[in-house]
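Hi there, hope your week has been kind to you so far. No rush at all, and the record is pasted right below.
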Amino acid sequence: MASDGTLIEIGARDSVDPIRVLLADDEPGLRTALTELLSHEERVELIGTAGDAEEAIRIAESGRPDVALVDVRMPEGGGPHAARGISRVSPGTRVIALSAYEDRKNVMEMLRAGAVGYLVKGTAADELVHGIEIVAQGGTSLSAEVLGGVVAELATQLRREEIEHDADQALRGDIERFVSGHGVWMVFHPIVDLETRQEIGVEALARFGSIPVKPPDRWFAEATALELGLQLQLRTLKEALEALPKIPDGMFLAVNCSHLAAASPEFADRLDGVEDRILLEITEHEA
């Protein structure tokens, strides 16, 4: 607060302060041309130029520019490497990709690397400076040549995410149906003593009704990924134990489970009173 009681915003850019800019491009001729162009702009102060990605990162770390103009394709890692490195060493620096290429792949690669703008080389001087100003103020700047491609890519990505979300919801619905006891059953395979050839127990194996058909280990893995692994294993244990009264005395029931499930209190509760007839087979699917 000033002596006259006026509030002062600490850290805010003074409107008359020039925007400090770093220029990174491996073409000497273009660096010279852009340096000349920016030198005539009072709104911009060029703090340094770099000819490769690593040099751009070093200058950004020491100079802390407000905006970095970064060529998409240059030595020592290219524009995406430079963008990520600059963002790491100078988080306050906002990156504008500068490229002769306007294809969607290059645009999206730079945006994913942290760039907030993408200008095509040859952009008019006033548009370039305006883009720098917008980005410095927290906005984004995209050349008209690339805007359509970005919108199309984002629309495709959104649709992809919607499809993945719908698939996840459908998968969760199937697993929750199994957990509730619908569409899950057990098959029992005899376990034989190899010396006496007598049956000494049975192994309970889970089966799940679904279209398309998936193997049980796939269902357990997907349930685990959705944090429903323990619940599904408890359901299959319940289904297996319901057959225990039909198994002759003296024979054991083998059930599969993960070591995490076997150590859970819920699992122990289900086995209470029948522990002496149960053989746990620890498998790789984790809860």
About this structure: The first helix runs from residue 28 to 39. The first strand starts at residue 19 and ends at 24.
